[in-house]
Amino acid sequence: MSQDKISAFLDGNSLVWYHEDSKNLIIGNSEGLLKIFNVNEPDLEPVSIDINENLTALAAHGNTLALTCTSGNLEQVSLETNQSKGSVYRSELPLRDVIFINEGKRILSGGDDNKLVILDVETQSNPNIISLPDQLLNLSYNHTGEILALSLANGNIQLYSVINEVPSLIHTINNALPTKIHTSLEKIDYNDEHRDELVSTKTLWSSNGTHLVLPSSNNTIKVYDRSDWSETKEFTIEGSIWDFALVEPFLVVLKENRVQVLDYTSKRIVADKSFDLEGNLALNVAVNEGDVYIGTSGGEVISFKGLLERSSEPQPSKSNGISSLFLDEAEEDSNDEAEDTDALLRDSDDEPEPKRPNENGYRLHQEDSMVIDEEEEDFTERRKRHKPNGFIPPRHIPTQVPVEDLKPYSPGSTPWGGLENNQSSSTDRRYLFMNSIGYVWAVKNIADSESTNQQSITVSFFDRSVHKDYHFVDYFQYDLCSINDKGTLLAYSGHKDKKSTDNAKIYYRNHDSEQESWERKIPLLKEEYLTSVSITSSAQSTGDATIVVGTNFGYLRFFNHYGVCINIMKTTPVVSLISSSASVLFAINQLTNGVYTYSIIDVNLDYKYIQQDVLLPLKKPTNQDIPLIKGTFFNEFNDPCLVGGADDTLLVLQAWREPGNSKWTPLMNCHSIVTEDGNNSNKKNWKCWPLGLYKDQLSCLILKNNKQYPAFPLPLPIELEIKLPIQIREKSQKNPEEIFLRSLTMGKLVSEALNDDNHNEEQDEIMERLTQYSMMFDRSLLKMFGEACKETRLNKALSIAKMIKTDKALAAAAKISERMQFMTLATKIGKLREELVSLSDEEE
């Protein structure tokens, strides 16, 4: 380890930033110049770029650099052309910090005007602005959880979720930081007048996003757990903290004239180096692997080569995949769980099962409090005890492996790499599940080979007033999911390990409490794996929610809310499963290549088939980038809905309560609606991502820029009015024929719910909606009748009049005929009225 000086500038305030993508050291100076150094070739001349004076902060992502200064300018610099792009935003007061979020798609900045500015990197226009209760001092971003931490002048930290286009406040940690007010408005004199602005108020996130690290007002550095924002750890630092960096397992702390390196596991100081700046002060610290760089108020930069090289102290094991930053807590938890598991085995009458995955030194989940053991014997163990002259009742009836390899599927899920991440990103992410309640997404580190067996999972909600987002580190690579209004169900399908028969597992936890969490294995045959899982929309008064697990061999297993297997069935290979609030299961199965069927099972009626193996009008897209199913869900009356990827059309299943009479009705072509039938050139590449159907509105996400899948940030859900695809729309004009057919279709759907025992409490609402559809029905027919009369198509007008079902509407049609002097038509309508009245009298 050696100490060197980089004479980047003769004077001025120099801030350092290590650029991970290019492996270059970026030094910005307050005199209006920026230099880029190749740390691997120190003899090369640095690249110089002119920037705004009085620099306050800099950040980089990919080939873009963002800078802020006391003049209030947010400046962008291209690292491809090594030229400034100029200011992209201007504030009346100084900006103090800047950061990139959402894979570099957005820039966030703020400062003395109590505002958070959110700017889209591509459009660079119409920034979103959020008002803050005080001056913004610093920003830090948790890329695994899409969470932003804002340091405010009053000492509070505000936590925002930035998964959506408009950030939402999720929590505030009060009085966590030293209070600090920036008074510098032009040049910053750290050596004298503005020395108090050096006190650190920034926050940092652990690499897995589970902990927030920050300096407190009493010269300590505290660690907060993201799950409940409780303080979990504290480091005592002698003297004021001016800056710090987190490079696990090290904490680098910068003070007035020295830099210290602490080990998280032992909390001991493993390196302590002082330096003399001849009257100047240290400003900030940047870390490049083992090297530490320090910006100063005198223009130069101090570097300590190899300062973070590991000392001779024993290294904590990383084999369990947990960051050594919190290894002591993790080991304590794993020991507790091992004792609990041993106790369970001692109390059980069954013979001990093979060594469980959680005996490798880590918990099944950081949030687990209860583990339910597998109650069924392992199939391979049964095979070992099989004798030639003995007979063992088969647990499974062997079935033929499907011709086509089914991919595990959850509604709203996206593939890895399908979110169009920035190529320079070290992480990959995907949505595991999405519906009108919320969404579950996973993030994994693709740059760190040691982290390939773990991912961070976050459960988010569109309405955060009902539930708070939560997350955990997943060591089993869950790839299937389902959520309802009570909890989350996750599963590892075993698709990657089809030769193994004991890898598949499911995990459930309540949204608001982890006390009822449980996990259990699912027995499989060779080449079998899970393809879909589902949980009923909500618990009924008659019992708790039901969990369903399906496989590519067609096995359906049903579990109660607490993980007890309550039934098992055999069907054809399962493609998708969804469950309604009435415990009605809608299953899509594969009959053969490209041929699919559906079944409807009433779980509450002893698993009775209401519809069984009915051919499904689902076509596999020719484009492999387009999913087979874009959305599958129930409407508010438990009618199954489906949006296929090939035709992008919303279908609803009618008359499914009557065996043998179900029929699919197209309610809208999603692509036509969002693109206005291609008539709007600005929307020709837009796409629709369906979430749910409520009344006449499709809840969905609009995907712009020709994207196939929702990305980050997630656009806010919108509602589209359904329009049956019966003819090309003529701009914004309403088509009475479409309104007639829509009111007829939706009226039938609603009327079917009248006979459903699950909607007894909604009878008044149902009758009100039926009245509305009846009025729509009559108005649309009268408008069609009038148009036919204008066109002198009297036979068409009469055919329309015959569809009118109320005397009031028929009387209106007769008046239209008389007004247009079609007396013969008026006479015929009069006879229709007489027949209608006569029919009504007979019914009475």
TrEMBL record:
This protein's record includes keyword Disulfide bond: no
GO cellular component: nuclear replication fork
Xref: PANTHER family: WD REPEAT AND HMG-BOX DNA BINDING PROTEIN, WD REPEAT AND HMG-BOX DNA-BINDING PROTEIN 1
InterPro entries membership: WD40/YVTN_repeat-like_dom_sf, WD40_repeat_dom_sf, WDHD1/CFT4_beta-prop_2nd, WDHD1/CFT4_hel
Source domain of life: Eukaryota
Signal sequence segment: none
Species: Suhomyces tanzawaensis NRRL Y-17324
Single GO MF annotation: chromatin binding
Intracellular or extracellular location(s): Nucleus
Pfam families (UniProt xref): Ctf4_C (PF20946), Mcl1_mid (PF12341)
WDHD1/CFT4 second beta-propeller domain location: 407-726
GO biological process entries: DNA repair; DNA-templated DNA replication; mitotic cell cycle
Residue span(s) of domain WDHD1/CFT4 helical bundle: 735-836
Ranges annotated as biased composition (Basic and acidic residues): 343-368
Compositionally biased spans, kind Acidic residues: 330-342, 370-379
Keywords of this entry: Nucleus, Repeat, WD repeat
Region listing for Disordered, in residue ranges: 330-403
Name recorded for this polypeptide: WD40 repeat-like protein
